Every structure is written in structure tokens, then in C-alpha cells.
Amino acid sequence: MTRWVAPTAAGPVRGSVIVPGSKSATARAHVLAALADGPSRLVGALDARDTRLMRGALATLGVGYTDHDDGTVTVTPPDAFRPGAVDVGLAGTIMRFVPPLAALAEGTTAFTGDREAEVRPVAPLLDGLAQAGARIDGRALPFTVHGTGSVRGGEATIDASGSSQFVSGLLLSAARFDEGLTLHHRGEAVPSRPHIGLTLAMLRDRGVGAEEVGPASWRVEPGPIDARDETIEPDLVNAAVFLAAALPTAGAVTVAWPRHTVQAADTILGVLDALGGVVTRTDGYVTVSGTGRVKGADLDLTDASELTCIAAALLATADGPGSIRGVAHIRGHETDRLAALETELSQRGAGVHQTADGLAIEPRPLAGGAWGTYADHRMAHAGAVLGLSVPGVELDDIGATTKTMADFAGLWSGLVGA
Ligand SMILES: O=C(O)C1=C[C@@H](OP(=O)(O)O)[C@@H](O)[C@H](O)C1
Ligand SMILES: C=C(OP(=O)(O)O)C(=O)O
């Protein structure tokens, strides 16, 4: 646990940040390269706790890794996956994307993770995998997958209202199932849909037939997954934390922004705009400027629930009441984020309470003091954003940020000028 007092901005935060690679694209690139018909070289892949553990998990299953001096990495699939012991850490992408590969191995693979990961939902993914023909013991971490060297596939129906990753996890490996997979969702709305779009796009980039075939149904055709060199985009959700620093400080922050992307780019910029940021796009970059006044707003974050923590921190300093909705499922993220935000923002003085699917936030005078991170990188980002305008916000563990950025504190202090 490393305590960290969030730097308070002495004036407008102005500058640019080079944001590391996308966690979501890197996880998918590793999995698809592991399943491909030859070696793939990855450029710009994220190197942080989640993606290191992903490499570790795939290496356990027999995947080869060669790091090059220029920071790129070659991923070499094995002739056949082998079983082993997989540590998922706190990564949803590992606990939901890797079990199908373990089912393709011959033998038993045991999955364990952090204490906080043991309460994260995974049963719908395991149910779907069982419907596709795999044998599994357990409905939460720790669980075991008894692989037989192949998975039949065919058709499965799951409730993916708890996480889009249940859908992505099954689709990513489905081309390697004997019959491919037609997957149906039955239940409340599927959250974070752009991440399913990212899964389908990255499958198609590797020559796989992958489509949404109905409002809540997807089809992946059986067949080879092409080996392919691939460049990973910067992480636009992590970019949003830095862009957010412009709003309460009347600053201007610039990051690289891909011209075409399947990340939830427009949703992210739309949220910053709704909160009072002025968004300017130039070729390959985006700049967000602030006025020093954050606007109270009603935000539907169904498609971009990862923004909830920083949006809540901004709304706590806004010029009027605000709310966030569409994010009931983030009670199952790295921590129960709705409870954590209610607790921490209330303790700093804001009027915050949970609703059925989000938060209602009434800004009030705020004071510095302890900020719990709950092992959650995005709770740490929220504490950093709050600390820009509230002196003395002290995070109990800045180490939580290593989940998706190796040096968040360094990048943040460099930008804020601490
Ligand atoms: O597939 C992915 O890479 C992700 C999907 C989303 O999960 P949920 O659908 O559980 O929100 C997102 O919040 C998570 O950070 C990454
Ligand atoms: C929900 C998140 O992570 P994970 O991939 O572990 O689900 C997140 O990064 O906000």
C-alpha cells in the first residue's frame, strides 16, 4: 500500500500526455494471437499488471513470447494448448477471456485471482462455455476447467447483463470451436456494448466471420484465425482521466486520438463535453479545454461505464446537481464502485447516494482527507481528479493504478506540475 497525496493544481493544467496502449485491445490482441495460425507481432501493446498477467496466463497454456528491443513483442501460438495454473489477478479480461482457451487444452486448468476478484461475476461465461461442451467445476473464482483438447461449440444462451465480457470471452475463442458459436443474450440490457464491437472488429481483422445477427445475438464461424502484425491504439478511457484535468482548472490537455477507432471515442468526448469541456479535434489529436466550472449533468454511461469514477469526481465539484445512470453492473467491477463512490465522496463532503442503476450527486463544499481506493485503479483516478481542486486528498494506495498504467502517478504529476 503506497499512500499518495493527490497534487492540487496551482493554476490551469495545460499540457499533453502520451497515454499507453488500450487495455481492452491489448487483451484481445494477446488472446487472438495465441489462437492464430502463426506468430503475430504486437506494436504498442500495454505493459501493465492486467496485460502482464494475461501474458503469464497464456504462457502457462503454452504460448511463446519474444520481446524485441524496440518494445514490440512476438506472440507464437503452441501446436496444442497445455493445462496449468492461471492467476487472473483482478483482471476481468483474464477471468472471462482465458477459460475458453483452457477448454481447448487437454487437461485441467485451475483459475485463481485476487481476493477482490473472487466476488466478481463469471458464472454466465462458464455456463456458456459448458453449453458449448466444456466441463467446469465452480461458478466463481477459484474454478477449474477440464479441457479435452477441443470444444464442440454450436449454440448457447447466457445472461450478459452483468458484463459484456461474458459475450466477448466466448466470441474471441469461438472460431476454434468445432461448430463455431451462435450466442444469445437473455436478460436486462447488455452494458458496455462498444467493447463487443471491439471484439467483433478484431476478429474480422483476423479473417474470422463474426457478426451481430440480432439485437442480442452474435455468430462466429468456425475456421482459422489469421496470424497478423498489429498496432494497438492508446487507451481512450485512460486518456479521459488526463483530459478531465482541464475542466476544473480552466486548463487545456491534449492527447493522441485515432482518426478511426472502435473504442467508445465519441461517448467519452460527449461526456467531457456534457460536463463543460470544450472538445477540439485536429488530425490525430484531441484537446479538451475547461472553463474552471464543471457543469452538473445527467449522464447515461450504459456504453461507457468505465468513466463513472472520474465523472462522479467531477460532478462532486460541479455548479449544480448531477446524476449517472445505466451502470448497475459496476457493483461487480474491481470493487462495488457505486458503494465506494458514495462512501468516499460523502466523506469528503458531497451529497451522494446510490440509485438503482447509478448515483445522484449534489455538490457541496468539499474538504481534503482520506480517499479509499479499494484496489481499484479508477477509484484512484477519481481521487486524483478530486484532488486537483480539493487540497489534501490522500489516497490509501496509488499502487492500484498499475492495473492499467505502469506509471500513472508520474504521468499525472508531470501534467499537473507537481
Ligand atoms: O471487454 C473489455 O475489455 C471491457 C469491457 C467492459 O466490461 P463490462 O462490460 O463489465 O463493463 C469494461 O468496463 C472493461 O473495463 C473492459
Ligand atoms: C471494469 C474494468 O476492468 P476489468 O477489465 O477488470 O473488468 C475497468 O478497467 O474499469
TrEMBL record:
GO molecular function: 3-phosphoshikimate 1-carboxyvinyltransferase activity
Domain Enolpyruvate transferase: 9-409
Binding-site residues, 3-phosphoshikimate: 23-24, 28, 163-165, 192, 306, 333
Residues noted as binding phosphoenolpyruvate in the record, renumbered to the chain: 23, 92, 120, 165, 337, 378, 403
Keyword terms: Amino-acid biosynthesis, Aromatic amino acid biosynthesis, Cytoplasm, Transferase
GO CC terms in record: cytoplasm
Class of enzymatic activity (EC top level): transferase
EC annotation from Swiss-Prot or TrEMBL: 2.5.1.19
Protein family per UniProt: Belongs to the EPSP synthase family.
Subunit structure of this chain's protein: Monomer.
This protein's name: 3-phosphoshikimate 1-carboxyvinyltransferase
Organism annotation: Propioniciclava sinopodophylli
Gene this chain is encoded by: aroA
